[in-house]
Design brief:
- One of its GO terms (cellular component) is plasma membrane.
- InterPro entries: Cell_Envelope_Assoc, DUF218.
- By secondary structure, the chain is an alpha/beta fold.
- The chain has one domain: 3-Layer(aba) Sandwich (Rossmann fold).
- The protein contains seven helices and eight strands.
- Helix 3 links the parallel strand 5 and strand 6.
- The longest helix has 28 residues.
- The relative contact order is 0.16.
Length: 225
């Protein structure tokens, strides 16, 4: 069975309707990204002007041979620098541990410990399966009300918008990286992820796994001198 090629409308009116439909579709597709940029315009900071905040949240970004991927390592480096500078007191590492052989939070904890953050100041969230889940769990499980979020620049706006929607007053620290294939893939992915983010912020679904309240953050802050 042969499938014929789509044909353009033959009339001027039909072509105008087609163009209007395409334009409307493009506008609708870009609305979520526009919302992300507008809603986070005043919430992004650099390492030099990030406000002093008790908690930083670092989102998982994959493992290489059991350790943090280069992108994840750069996020963790930024968190370690903030801690050593006295700008944060505790770090919540949130990532995927859905399989026994894949444990982002433990790898993140080990990396931070090796880079000057005491183990008692690091709290692990093992069910941060996506950005929305991480934000909701930060608020509802770990009791985080205010945080510095750390991720790459292509992801940080979505993280801030979702954590704000989840009830965490947030500032975002975007980590710069070499613009390689991974970077461009991440930036392209964000265009599509913005649509899901808008739906999450609007309907606020429960995370894949919520679980009971944990006092790890409170204990970490209580150990501060």
């Amino acid at each position: 069975m042969r499938i014929g090629r789509p044909r353009l409308p033959r009339t001027v009116r039909g072509r105008r309707r087609l163009v209007r439909g395409v334009v409307a579709g493009c506008v609708l597709a870009l609305l979520p990204s526009t919302w992300l940029y507008a809603s986070t315009a005043d919430r992004l900071r650099t390492a030099a002007d990030v406000p002093r905040t008790e908690v930083a949240v670092v989102f998982g970004a994959g493992l290489w041979n059991g350790g943090p991927s280069p992108y994840l390592a750069h996020r963790l480096d930024a968190a370690a620098r903030l801690y050593r500078a006295g700008r944060i007191e505790a770090v919540l590492v949130t990532g995927d541990n859905s399989r026994e052989d894949y444990d982002e939070p433990s790898a993140m904890r080990t990396y931070l410990s090796r880079h000057g953050v005491p183990a008692g100041r690091i709290v692990s969230d093992y069910a941060g399966f996506d950005t929305w889940d991480s934000c909701v769990r930060a608020r509802r499980v770990f009791g985080v009300h205010r945080a510095i979020l750390i991720s790459q620049t292509f992801h940080i706006r979505r993280a801030v918008a979702l954590c704000e929607a989840a009830g965490v007053s947030s500032y975002g620290l975007g980590v710069e990286d070499r613009h390689d294939a991974t970077w461009y893939y991440g930036g392209t992915r964000e265009v599509f992820a913005a649509g899901k983010a808008a739906l999450d912020a609007a309907f606020r679904p429960s995370p894949q796994f919520l679980g009971p309240r944990e006092r790890g953050i409170q204990r970490a802050l209580a150990s501060a001198p």
